[in-house]
Structures are given as structure tokens and as C-alpha cells.
């Protein structure tokens, strides 16, 4: 319960506008029957007072649990500072305890302890989510514990037959991309934050990225997940690794049982993709990769004078480029001006003379490979 309350807050913050509207529509006293986002808000505020802040005894218990390994329990102001601030520097938390487990078992032990002792937990990955979901709430009645997955960063298996890469959720997206490239395949998601965001955070936000037009969302490409629930229970959803002798040691030679096609029964992993930590912590990910790493690509920047023109371009691009269409991204006038004002190489030089005179220009960036 403690974990769920704290982590649900991230979804609540992101969906605040929607929740407020739904509450107005559904009226007071009907929140339990209301859609998910309304229930999230009421959960957070009704039960927040049950939680308590971590004490020195809790810190000692975590030190014992995580085997005194250096860097696994952070408590000094200096050490926890960066974990309390997100990429935008807009959200600021006040947590004084950061836990950095290295294995699924350690995540499970931490969550079981927090659940038993009424400590709220915020899962944190690369901290680039942009909406503050990975940052503890400064105004919460009790301090929340930050559980960072950044040390769970091993890629544990590669299956050349199915094209599936499996690894711990704390791997940096760029590292997964580099690993995939060495194997001649391509990770089907690419974001501006790839050097900092982690695969578990990316799955938890269901981040889209520039190749959405080709590969669709992570719901289409994540084939297996391992997650730890609030009480410490470990769920393996189409992802079973052969047990190695030491739980903490994960090697790239592990055998993974993960079906590329599994159309039996319910598919629970989809509940955790995009759940932002509200249902559990993602500890391992099995991701299908595109079979060929492109050896050539073609990018084009089109200028349109209306949003209608932008919309007309998409079916044309799909018809002309067919399966090779990889990205179709649009920047409106305001974004274009921001880019022009903040980047050294001005974009205005690329705009034809007669179009420069027009009041509104929207750009479409199309990539094919
Ligand atoms: C420059 C830049 C470009 C971006 N481009 C795109 C884009 O093109 N498309 C797009 O969709 N998004 C984009 N994003 C936002 C995107 O959501 C994040 O970059 C990234 O995917 C989040 O990953 P993270 O590791 O930083 O997660 P965090 O920010 O650390 O966490 C995000 C959320 O997931 C939760 N969480 C983290 N780890 C776990 C876990 N293991 N289990 C359960 N919950 C967890 C956190 O509590 C939080 O609620 C961009 C961000 C930046 C800064």
C-alpha cells in the first residue's frame, strides 16, 4: 500500500487536468467508480497520512539488506541532491534517502520492507521523464524513499534467432542501441534523451520517440517483462531466465525463455508499460529488435503553410515511401522559432526565399530507410 500510494502520485501529476475534469463530471463521492485517474488522486490524498518518513533504524536495515556495498544507500545531502531534481530542474524533491539496488532480489527485499513499514517509494530511472514523476513530492506529509534502478544495468542475453535482447531495467537506452548495432539489429525506440534515459523508465513511460511511424509504441515491441509488486512479489511475464548460482551476478550467457509470439490468455505485461511505477517496479525487459540495422537513410525537411497541408503530407509519405517510412515528425511555427533562436546553425537559411515572406511555416521532418 505504501509503495502504491507514493508511486501512483506520478501518474496523478501527469493526468491532473484530466482527473480534475473527471471529478467535476462524476461529482464527489463517486470516485471509486470513476475512471483510473480520478481514483489515483483520491488514493493519494486519502491514505497519504498513513506513511511515515524513514528513520536511522530504517537506514541501517537497508544497509544490512544491500550488503554494505558502496553507493547502495545514499543519505548525505550532497549525494541525494541530483536524485531530488529532474531533467527540467522544475521539480524539486526533499527525500533524504536513495536506495540503489543491483538485483531483482534486492528490489523485492526493499519493497517488502517499505510495504511492511509504511514507507513511500518513488521509482527512478534516468530522471528525464519531463513531468516530475520520478521526483518525490516535496509537500507530501512524509518523506519518500527514492529507489534508483541505475545500477541494474546489465544486458543479460541476446537471441539471434528471435532478435530479442534481454537485460536489467537500468541499462541506458544508448547502451542498448550500441549493443544492438553490434549485433546488426536496431532497437525500435530512439529519443533525444537516449544518453540518459534508462530502458525501464522508457518502458514505464511508454515513450514514443522518432521512429513511432515505423515501429509503433513499446506495447508492440516489448515481448517480456519482469516486475516487482509493492509487497515484494516478483512477476515474470513471458520472461524466464535460467537460474544462475548467484542471484546478484547476471551474465550475458544466461538462457532466457521468452516467446516471440505468445497469444495465450491475458497479457499482463501491457499493464506495466506506461504505468509510471503505479503498479510495480520493472526490473527486466525483453525487447524485440528490428532485423536489419539500416545502412543508408534519407531525411527530408518539408515546409508547409498550414496544418491542413501537414496532415495531407502523411498519407502521401505513406503511399510513396511504403514500408521505408521511418519517421514523420512535425514542428509548428513556434517550435521552429525556438530552435532557430537557440541553435547556432540557423534553420532560416533552409527556408526558400518566397516562403520566408509567409506568416506561418510548419516543418515536417521525414526519415526513410
Ligand atoms: C531531450 C528529451 C527528449 C525526449 N523525447 C521523447 C520522445 O521523443 N518521446 C517520448 O515519448 N518521450 C520523450 N522524452 C520523455 C521520456 O519520457 C523520457 O526521456 C524517458 O523515456 C523516461 O525514461 P527515464 O529513464 O528518464 O525515466 P524517469 O524519468 O526516471 O521515470 C519516468 C517515470 O517512470 C517511473 N519509473 C522509472 N523507472 C521505473 C521502473 N523501473 N519501474 C517502474 N516505474 C519506473 C518513474 O517513477 C516516473 O514516474 C524525452 C525527454 C527528454 C529529456
Structure description:
This protein is an alpha+beta fold and 369 residues long. It folds into three domains: 2-148, 2-Layer Sandwich (Uridine Diphospho-n-acetylenolpyruvylglucosamine Reductase, domain 2), CATH 3.30.43; 155-288, Uridine Diphospho-n-acetylenolpyruvylglucosamine Reductase, domain 3 (2-Layer Sandwich), CATH 3.30.465.10; 298-368, no CATH class. The chain is built from 13 helices and 14 strands. It has helices at 2-14, 16-26, 36-47, 56-65, 77-80, 104-116, 173-182, 199-205, 212-215, 269-272, 307-321, 333-342, 353-356, and strands at 73-74, 98-99, 121-124, 145-148, 155-159, 164-168, 222-228, 234-237, 240-241, 256-257, 281-288, 298-304, 325-331, 362-368. The strands form four sheets. A five-stranded antiparallel sheet has the order 5-6-11-7-8. A hairpin with a 5-residue loop joins strand 7 (222-228) and strand 8. It is globular and about 65 Å long. Bound molecules: flavin-adenine dinucleotide (FAD). Flavin-adenine dinucleotide (FAD) binds at residues 10, 87, 122-130, 133-134, 149, 169, 191-193, 197-198, 200-202, 204-205, 207-209, 276-277, 281-282. Residues 10, 87, 122-130, 133-134, 149, 169, 191-193, 197-198, 200-202, 204-205, 207-209, 276-277, 281-282 line the site of flavin-adenine dinucleotide.
